[in-house]
Write a structure and sequence with these properties.
- It is globular, with a radius of gyration of 21 Å.
- It is α/β, with parallel strands linked by helices.
- A hairpin with a 5-residue loop joins β8 and β9 (199-200).
- The model has no long low-confidence stretch (mean pLDDT 96).
- α13 runs parallel beside α15 (380-401).
- It has helices spanning 3-13, 46-49, 58-68, 81-92, 105-122, 143-147, 152-155, 176-179, 203-216, 237-241, 267-270, 286-301, 304-325, 348-357, 380-401; strands spanning 25-29, 32-35, 40-43, 98-102, 130-134, 165-168, 184-189, 192-193, 199-200, 219-223, 247-250, 261-265, 330-336, 339-344, 360-361, 363-365, 369-372.
- The protein folds into two domains: 3-57 and 303-401, Aspartate Aminotransferase, domain 1 (Alpha-Beta Complex); 58-301, 3-Layer(aba) Sandwich (Aspartate Aminotransferase, domain 2).
- The chain starts with a helix and ends with a helix.
Length: 403
């Protein structure tokens, strides 16, 4: 099926929930994907932080293929080996003590909200129900996760939303005392905000949150759906900040391309969930768990966290150089590891279109922030090529605007 036919089928039969770019992809390998017309693209978006090891990594493909020949699904009424081994590997490498597997980041955050409230309930603190999230956050599109995402533009038309959610300013230490009270069950925060524009939490702010939670009995939840699994230069994002949460949520890159999510929690918190409190039909599906296990093993055994820190530093340095060269286009360069945001002074959509023309995949979030989430396998040559394409796109946008 050619590209235009595929677009027509999408238009006719799929709900209109995405403003898709006019590209139909048919194949991927390593850091590259090819469209239906055979054009090759360097992928610096990585399926929005999903393809950590690039497209179709041999170890992940082998794990999927082997598991699919043995057992596709039996449900969580029974034990399966891939889920057990994956939970062990996560826990032994920083993923706290106990794991619950689900299918997506939104589900992981929904479950974390339930776990936090159930924890307080089991301790006899029925008054503790409030979940405090941050301005410019993004935690998912299910109703609970949406309630924790303080963005009126994506909440509009879905009310009344569940109650018990409040928002405080991201990195505003001085507002912390007035945000927390006797009804606070937990804080939910992304150590690095992705959809919000790639903003990093301050180490001091996270330390203050940890201390406030310890004083009040509230729980600290880190949403590492986008910034976890090595993206920051450590396997878990919290390790980069030196602040240990009570609950971590994961998804996106965890499955190496297949859908899987997780709630990681300390023993004390995890014990709040008892049989019947939470569940999922497909969570820890044997094939998805096998893919995640293979992905995690490669990340750990081949020390990709160190590579991410090194390549991320190189990429950020290249963009700082571009910022010095084009201060009328680039306002700020932010990020950590291979999660980078470039805040623009020009229309981001037109710059993305120019990048697509030249065979580079990036996108824009928060209106004007060019977001880059390349796979961990990228080379310096590929970084140089991506930066060169972005610089060419900047020049074309400048010329068009007469800057």
């Amino acid at each position: 099926m050619k590209g235009e036919a595929t677009k027509q089928l999408h238009s006719k039969y799929l709900m209109n929930t995405y403003s898709r770019y006019p590209i139909v992809f048919v194949r991927g390998e390593g850091a590259y994907v090819w469209d239906a017309e055979g054009k090759k693209y360097l992928d610096f978006l990585g399926g929005i932080a999903v393809n950590l090891l690039g497209h179709c990594h041999p170890s992940v493909v082998e794990a999927i293929t082997s598991q699919a020949k043995e057992l596709l699904h039996v449900s969580n009424l029974y034990y399966t080996e891939p889920a057990a081994k994956l939970a062990e590997l996560l826990s032994l490498n920083g993923g706290l003590d106990k794991i619950f597997f689900c299918n997506s980041g939104a589900e992981a955050n929904e479950g974390a909200i339930k776990l936090a409230r159930k924890f307080q309930w089991r301790r006899g603190h029925r008054e503790k129900y409030k979940i405090i999230s941050m301005t410019h956050s993004f935690h998912g599109r299910t109703l609970g996760a949406l309630s924790a995402t303080a963005k009126p533009q994506i909440q509009e038309g879905f009310g009344p939303l569940p109650s018990g959610f409040h928002t405080m300013g991201f990195n505003e230490i001085e507002r912390l005392d007035e945000a927390i009270d006797e009804s606070t069950a937990a804080f939910l925060i992304e150590p690095i905000q992705g959809e919000g524009g790639v903003h990093c939490a301050g180490k001091g702010f996270l330390e203050a949150l940890r201390a406030a939670c310890d004083r009040s009995g509230a729980l600290l939840i880190f949403d590492e759906v986008q910034c976890g699994m090595g993206r920051c230069g450590t396997l878990f994002a919290y390790e980069s900040f030196g602040v240990r949460p009570d609950i971590i949520t994961l998804a996106k890159g965890m499955g190496g391309g297949l859908p899987i999510g997780a709630i990681c929690a300390t023993d004390a918190v995890a014990n709040a969930f008892q049989p019947g409190d939470h569940g999922t039909t497909f969570g820890a599906n044997p094939v998805a768990a096998a893919a995640a296990l293979a992905t995690l093993r490669v990340l750990i055994e081949e020390n990709y966290s160190e590579r991410v820190a090194r390549m991320g530093g190189y990429l950020i340095s290249k963009f700082h150089a571009l910022q010095q060269k084009y201060p009328d286009v680039i306002r700020e360069v932010r990020g950590m590891g291979l999660m980078i945001g470039i805040e623009l002074r020009v229309d981001g959509a037109s710059l993305v279109a120019k990048c697509h023309e030249k065979g580079l995949l990036v996108n824009v979030v928060a209106g004007s922030v060019l977001r880059l989430l390349p796979p961990y396998i990228i080379t310096k040559e590929e970084v140089d090529r991506a930066v060169s394409i972005i610089e060419e796109a900047i020049k074309r946008v400048k010329n068009k605007r007469g800057l």
